[in-house]
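From the thread on structure requests for the teaching lab: each student submitted one protein with a one-line request. Submission from student K.M.:

"Model Protein EFR3 homolog cmp44E isoform X3 from Drosophila kikkawai, tokens only."
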Amino acid sequence: MFGCCGCCSALRPRYKRLVDNIFPVNPEDGLVKSNMEKLTFYSLSSPDKLDRIGEYLYQKATKDINRKRYKLAEIAMEAMDLLLQACHAQTTLNLFVESFLRMVQKLLEDSNPNLKIMATNSFVKFANINEDTPSYHRRYDFFISKFSSMCHSDAASLRDSLRLAGIKGLQGVIRKTVSDDLVENIWEAQHMEKIVPSLLFNMQSGDLTPVEDATNVTPPALAEEVLRELVGRASFGHIRSVLKPLLTHLDRHELWVPNTFAIHTFRIVMISIQPQYSYTVVETLMQHLDNNFKSSPKTRTSLAVVLSKIIAIAAGESVGPSALDIINNLLTHLRTSVSTTSEITPEESQYQEALINALGEFANHHPDYQKIEIMLFIMNTVPDLSKKSKGDQMLQNILLKSLLKVGTQYSTVSFEKAFPASFLQPLLKMARAPHDPTRMVVMQIFQALLDRHQNEKVLSSVSVKPYPALSQEPPSRSDIIFTHKYGANIMQALIDSMALSDRVDALSSSYNTAALLIVEMSCNETVQEFLLFILGIQQVASTTETLGTVHKCNLHIIAIGLLVLISRVSGINNLLDYAQKIVDARREEASHYLPPLLEPKKMANKSLNLSLPHLAIDKLALGECLQNAGMDAQRLNTGAPYALNQTDHPGHRHSWVESVSNQLTQRNSSADLTVYNGDVDSVSSSPGVCKKLLAPEFNFDAMKRALAEPTEAAKRELRERQMQIVRTFREGEFDDLMRRTEPKHDLIQNRLNELFNSLAVERQITQSDTKAAQLQASNEKPIYETNFPELFYY
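Reply posted by the TA:
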């Protein structure tokens, strides 16, 4: 019988004999190395037999697994690994791989954990091999499902090893399929819904800190590494396939509150994703926030916090419309939050603050020019003051807080750039809002943009004492021009704001803004306008009957505080001495006219004397102080202090018709009763061209100012001159008026005579005969030698 078996074995194919010889008599001895080398050499020399060798090994392993002879199955798997490594360059490898994958699948299906781990390791080795010829029919559905289930293993023994094996298997599938577009598309939802939750499950099951020792990798650390690789390999069209199951997993397992794990996960995504696709993550998270608008405020707040933590990473790659799109989405969420709640609860307020912080973080990573665009965009979304409902006031407040958040991130260099007319005009309107919190937020916006030297906290309280920590530098030429152009409008808005409420915090905020305005813009050219502003505050306190007693006292306190401040920052000692005399006198007679500001509730039962005109700031005395200091005081002496509710038009450019009408107003017989100017040059006859007086210094800036539009201060001076003219006509004697206007009447008569004479000459020429006309035409001078009438001389 033995001889018969020997004869039968000799008749078997050689590859089968070589395969049989690698198995030892005792399975514990392991693979027979010498015989394995022979099998490898045969496979390399006869590659056409490789697929048969693989099929035979698979059959033997299947029998051994069914008979529970796991050692022999492990030897078969080891032999398959060695053959795969040695013959991976063969063109017939695809047929062998089919047997190899069937072998791996067979081991994974068994309940023995050791076989699963071994099969996974074999698959990982296969995944690291680059095949020259891809297989179009190969599918990995089973491996994705099996490896994902291993990631969730709760086996009492080898739990971590099985989870590690499952994560490694998923990593192998990702590497094998992502790099080849011809194989199965792993980005399909059915696959991502298994891979991503499996990785997240392991990440949340332990410490998220990566382990430095590579030999002792934990499932959370490896899962994080695989997630980074998966996100890093995702293209623009596939990144949403990863984010959707990620968000679903966080929702199902309620991982938003607390949001530590969510923040960690999204940071991994943002750091790993290709930079140009980071905007997609922010957009997807915002859409998810839209879908959860009915969720609890805590959940929405956590979502908004996650958004604020990652949005800064995306800001660097968002430019132009994409940046404004993100801002618009955040503002939409804020509006939705305000419109859906009648009362703002603390939780809802936290949600709104989280959205505002996200907006601020996003804007902080943009250049300053884009921050201005963002602020202008937000300003255009604020409801108009005509809408006075409670919801609109809440929305105004929230949107202005968003604007403030962006403003605090902006570094002001030039006020002209920080306050463009399209931004300043609506902001000044909001400064007159009837809602106190809204006005205070507007004041904070002004403070954030005006404060270039960190003086906001120093000037937060009204004081007549020196500010030791005050930082100051002279304003630039562009800032002075900005003050001439818009300073009057800002100060007018401040006066209107101060008169609207007697709340101490609101008045302190307005004082802080005015003080910063003075510190940043005060110089010899602007000090007179600021003094008129201070006199305006005092005049409002003295003449406005609707204000309360405490309110009037506080306005007087603000006025003296600003006077002392401008005296110190401008360095005018005469003005400082005068201000100090007023302070000393008030300290003796009326301490309620000195800082600090008075609380209306505390002073309700106290009588305060307001009939103290000798303690008021005197306009003539201020003018004398400036003159004694060698400064021009004409604007202060002739100008009227600011008053309530004066209209302003920041940045308004006059049309041609307005220029002509203003010019005609200046040229009529009552334009100037004190000075007669006999200059009749023809510049006044050209529409839209006004004669400008040149500045004493003839440089580029002086010429530019001469050609510029009249400033608000110049307009105020013109109105005052016109009022003076009206008073002169009303109060002056008739003979004096005749004497002053007579020369101009003679001038008009002379011009009319010249006009009639020219018409008579023209009529005589037209009546002459044709020959004489032709003769005259032949003898007249060339056109370039024609003498123009005096009317066109310049």
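TA comment: The two ends are 136 Å apart (CA to CA). The longest helix spans residues 734-767.
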